[in-house]
Structures
1.
Amino acid sequence: MNIGRASKLSGVSTKMIRYYEQTGLIPKAARHNSGYRDYDDADVHRLRFIRRSRDLGFTVEQIGGLLDLWADRSRASSDVKSFALGHIERLKEKMTEIEAMVRTLESLADHCHGDDRPECPIIDGLAENDGDSLRPKRREPQRFGRPGGQSARHHGGAAKVTL
Amino acid sequence: MNIGRASKLSGVSTKMIRYYEQTGLIPKAARHNSGYRDYDDADVHRLRFIRRSRDLGFTVEQIGGLLDLWADRSRASSDVKSFALGHIERLKEKMTEIEAMVRTLESLADHCHGDDRPECPIIDGLAENDGDSLRPKRREPQRFGRPGGQSARHHGGAAKVTL
DNA sequence: TTTGCGGCTTCCCACGATGGGAAGGTCAAG
DNA sequence: CTTGACCTTCCCATCGTGGGAAGCCGCAAA
């Protein structure tokens, strides 16, 4: 089957499938005479494995390890388990960090009246500043261009978790 | 003062200070005759504001908004508060996502004996596969080079939260 | 004064995972 | 045969950060 079909069946974009091949996460696909990549059910299965692993927050590099563990029918289940447990630990650390941010922000926000007056403990907290002796001048209307750029929207989508 | 001093005082790396200037997050620094950038206390203060905002998980673009809010002494505190509240929401979404990953992984790990036998519900869960009819062939010893790369270690540091 | 060193400058490259898009080849249906 | 959907490769951008080179600057010790 073609890459588009494999993509639909696995939930991995064609871009990513080619990328995974390029980086060696998956073996080079077979090719039709035309040059089109050809996938079979086992390939799709592997791609689904990869997608599920990504959904669980593993990096591509870690997934390389998982694929090896999957392929190795003689490795101990404890190897897999410790891999998973280590990942859980990392995820929990991340949660803890975010939790700390939330706590800080909430305590700041709790003290903010949120009315039309300008005094704001949130900004003061970020500035560690009660007066405004050091309040900066207004930034000149910066259209937020990257180094030489002309602004691009392109993916202002859903929250993502990058580890 | 020089950029290195401002960096030490603010906790923002010199690389980042220049980057923030380049992207317009901060105004172009004054220069000595030598061409060296020159910072004053207000600049350092702004950098500290930026660093604290980053630590709270705001993106650089959002910090642009925060700086504007800080500079605008006539804006309502409710503007700041809704900004902060929105951010808290995004943070919580992220926590929820990670929590889901952890729950899934833990339930998988709970069923794994973690002994020296190979049967492993974790791998099976990722593969959605109870037998091993579709178990992939071993990946050829891939030294995990990027497209053309010769591997780089470079920052294998602490867990970070990227939003 | 020369030498040396550390700090500064700009410029380019890399990371990880992903998407956009251009230029061109292929295939099946009409 | 044309059309349109699909495929190929190649390059570029994202976001925030660091690495490192090549070259200038400033200060202090020899």
2.
Amino acid sequence: MDKQEQILKAALKLFVEYGFHGTPTSKIAQEAGVSNGTLFHYYKTKDELVVALYIYIKTRLSACIDSNRGEGETIKATFKRIFLSSMYWAIENPTEFQFTQQFHSSPYLSMVSDEEIKKQTKCLMDFMQEAIDARVLKQLPIDLLFTLLSSQIYGINEYLVASSLDAEKQKEVINLSFDLIWDMVT
Amino acid sequence: MDKQEQILKAALKLFVEYGFHGTPTSKIAQEAGVSNGTLFHYYKTKDELVVALYIYIKTRLSACIDSNRGEGETIKATFKRIFLSSMYWAIENPTEFQFTQQFHSSPYLSMVSDEEIKKQTKCLMDFMQEAIDARVLKQLPIDLLFTLLSSQIYGINEYLVASSLDAEKQKEVINLSFDLIWDMVT
DNA sequence: ATTAAGATTGACTAATCAGTCTACAAAAAT
DNA sequence: ATTTTTGTAGACTGATTAGTCAATCTTAAT
């Protein structure tokens, strides 16, 4: 029903399959089942569509990560919950995850304002700063810690995708990886 | 003099600046100072050029990593040398490094044969297998270890690029990061 | 010297693409 | 009921693009 969302869904699918360069707006409109004109009614340019899609996906991811933080949770438990929810989000939304990777290492990234990026990571950053202040995490620059964590998630996901394990083995690898990371940052 | 190399250099620069999609072959030829026809004489299609550039860069990177392995080197020393040479290669060749990232998370990756990829990583993989067998590295799947190492290098590089530190501080972060990784994998 | 093979050029083309425009329909506001 | 706003369509266009081609130049072999 919601044409705007249909357009984003179609764009996501095609961008991941054919790349930004290989996906004409006409194909996106076609895949979304709307006219060419409708696409440009909602998004003034193709670039704007690409950026809007990134923000759309990132907003949903960070909402997922930030949600259901328990009350009396220990720092380690929170850290693990964040790690696991990121990991499982990536596994359950492979297309979205691949898109963010693709976007991240493309010139499009510079079209997103710092403000927007900070908005997406504030919750996580605040938690990590607390954990550093509480002397639980190592006394390292918070940006470094953040980057180490994210890149580990990318890496582990890549491994899981490449070696198609069953759900059980997958869970093992994820838990084992968490222990590695936890040892590293504490 | 070597037109083929000039074409690769020009393509590299433009791809990183404008993305694969935003770089017409005509601009590549222009930047390289050759004619349109010459470009297509060496590379039958644009895709072929993109893939050739990836292989060209990766070959030089792995040659750099695989070189100067000392004789009586301990496993830790070898591991550190590999880590450091990768890190410094990334710092000294930021455009090349960014290109590989961009390529890696694009649909172009599937155009590179498994064989070609294995050729690039064989040396490093063999060393890691030795280190696992010698019970120095943790008993983990080698692909997982490899992925963890590479993604950490990506991540640390990203951090270093974002926070423009002086050479001294940069070195500190790199050494400190090595210790974190070494603790993690042993 | 002559030939053959590859290198280089740049004009050319057929196809494609991002984005526009006009027309019309639906809904909302007055 | 009528006006205004918003959504939707799809034909259209001017610019651009990947790739071709025939002609010339260079190099090396015979």
